[in-house]
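Problem 12. The chain below contains 327 residues. Write out its predicted structure in token notation.
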Amino acid sequence: LATIKMTRIIIIFLFLISCQSDMTDNAFQTVTVETADAADNPSPDSLYFILQSEEKYNKGGNLVSKIEYYDNGKPEHQYTFEYNDNGLIEKETFKDNYGKGSLTIKEFKYNSHDSLIFRVITENDFSVKDSLIRHQDGRLQTQKTFIKGDSLVQFKILKYNKSNLLTVEKRFNKDSLLLDSTGYIYDNKGHLSEEVIFRRHEFDVEDYHNYHTYDSVGNPIISKWYLDNDSTYTKIDREFYPSGVLKKVESSGVGYKKSNKIVRKFDDKGNLTNHKIIDSDSVKNWTYEYNYDSNNKWILKKSYFQDELKLVTKRTFNWRKTVANST
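Solution.
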């Protein structure tokens, strides 16, 4: 049995808006997310919304804090972020308030070219450190991972071709046993056409390929993932607007007895407008619809099961306005 796991990632774009008044730049300061159960009350005007999360941003548009709430209004997860003078993240703190609670701290260091060279993750009393060695042009060459101070547990080696394209990425344990590797093959236009992947697990290994096909202008229109033979794999079909903006993505399992089909549609600005998940028997389906404001920020999301509205999510932006200095 195979199921396609979908990771829904919501990316918040930071931007500047030009105005024709005495206000110059607008950048949002806080974003709140609220949800309402619409199963028994589908009227948007009478829904009862519960605060789910709140995000705060600094003057540079960087996320500085985020709080995710339980339905009773108490904080569940709390995040804080600190940045250096170049706007690069230096420290991330995560507090989980479930049960006895836990605290995770991530710290980052960069070289003079703003490339990451050191990272440490500390959870309560346990820490993991990553040391990253780079070429002069910033390309990652070697990554070493340590625990308990300076005890090496694994390392990664990367190689490139004459065009500076990544060709091999291998990860080893402390005894130099290969844990996983990915080989990258490109066509004559520099497009990634094939990935050769090896993964070692505790009791078995995976060995498969990913293939990518492009149209005449370089858009990746077809991908085949997890292909270890010609009978079973995951197929990704993509459509694009004439401008090159992604229009539609459809993923499905080929040759599996059971697998979900996922269809995502975008408007001509690249905004996700419709996201549907259909089970292998085409009996059950979830559909998500998005509405956007004039700044291309999604502000309303409707979740349907079997074409019946079940959940409504709304985002509210509170804007900070900067007044232009008069001369």
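Discussion. The longest strand covers residues 308-323. Students who got a different answer should revisit the alignment rule from Section 12.3.
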